[in-house]
Amino acid sequence: MAVVSDQATSICSHCDRAIPSTNLDLHFAHCSRNLEKCKICEDMVPRKFAEEHFLSTHAPVACSLCSETMEREILAVHRGENCPKRIVTCEYCEFPLPAIDLFEHQYVGTGQNYVIFVADILDSEKEMFMRVDAMES
Ligand SMILES: [Zn+2]
Ligand SMILES: [Zn+2]
Ligand SMILES: [Zn+2]
Ligand SMILES: [Zn+2]
What we know:
With about 140 residues, the chain is α+β, with helices and mostly antiparallel strands. Helix content is about 50%, strand content about 15%. The strands form 4 sheets. The protein has a two-stranded antiparallel sheet with strand order 1-2. The protein has a two-stranded antiparallel ribbon with strand order 3-4. Strands 5-6 form a two-stranded antiparallel ribbon. The radius of gyration is 32 Å and the shape is elongated. One zinc ion binds next to helix 4. This is TRAF-type domain-containing protein. Keywords: Metal-binding, Zinc, Zinc-finger.
């Protein structure tokens, strides 16, 4: 035997929720007056806050660093990996600088890293000669 709930429900045509039939009229009056279905996430949002809901949930946001506008969902990734103005640390001198300047900083900037690179080669050549010396003596 089917279980029949003693509180029959009907679906509110405005919010698509199951509402006890006895309350449906009141609910519908209230619901249609106060709630609005968000066109994007289909959540029911109080009419008063529909704009706020859109702005805080769906509106594109501008990256505070490069001011590029993008979908909210990709902002975190953008800020962490793609933003040309995100601050990265130079792996050679540990100087923090915007990612967009890193290439220039490391390859044609001050020449400082070239110096480090040359110093590294000189060091390893020195070691090599020392080892050769050791082997020959
Ligand atoms: Zn409703
Ligand atoms: Zn929404
Ligand atoms: Zn950015
Ligand atoms: Zn550097």
